[in-house]
Amino acid sequence: MSSERKNEISAWYEQHSGSVFRYIMLMVRDSQQAEDLTQDTFTKAFRYYDTFERKANPRTWLFRIAHNVTIDYLRKQKPIETLKELLFIGQGSNALPEEILEIKENSKELYNALGRLKSSYREIIILRKIREFSIQETAEILDWSESKVKSTLSRAIPALEAQLIKEGIIYEKN
After folding, report:
1. Buried b (16+ CB within 10 A) or exposed e, 93-118
2. Does pLDDT of 101 surpass 90?
3. Checking phi first, is residue 132 left (phi over 0); if not, alpha (psi -120 to 50) or beta?
4. What is the C-alpha to C-alpha distance for residues 80 and 103, in angstroms, rounded to an integer?
5. d(Cα 133, Cα 136) in Å, to the nearest integer?
6. What is the mean pLDDT of the chain?
7. pTM for the full model?
8. Would you place residue 170 in the very low, low, confident or very high pLDDT band (cuts 50, 70, 90)?
9. Alpha-carbon gap, residue 169 to 90, rounded angstroms
10. Which of 96, 104, 115, 171 could pair covalently with 157 via S-S, beta carbons 3.0-4.6 A apart?
């Protein structure tokens, strides 16, 4: 075990574990499970340290690992809930109001509304609007094309708005 690897992963943990945890928490909605998956993320980062390409941003690489760890967990643990989420999709055609983009990640209303969205919509909103990853970084994390990131986000924002309207958090414009 090289001390360079250990030191770098420790530094990444100090710098990014909180944001990785919050990302996973928004996906799984279970604090204890999010903690476990965050640990799994950094364990995998340590194990696969040699595959990290130095041209990549460590934060992007860690979120890619966190995404994969979380998706694997969701597929194994909650197949019926995941199916229900996929069937429960809000529809909307209006642009999302600016004030909604200002809702902080700890907002219970946003947290609940995000939890009711299709998982791909939830992920894209979390990565692009809450975690503020670029289109390119989001594409790397999700292993999607940049055009898929853009088109999914363009459908996810109205779906979130519709969910927030449905829950009475925002009101439809006349």
Report:
1. eeebeeebeebebeeeebeebbebbb
2. no
3. left
4. 30
5. 8
6. 79
7. 0.63
8. low
9. 14
10. 96
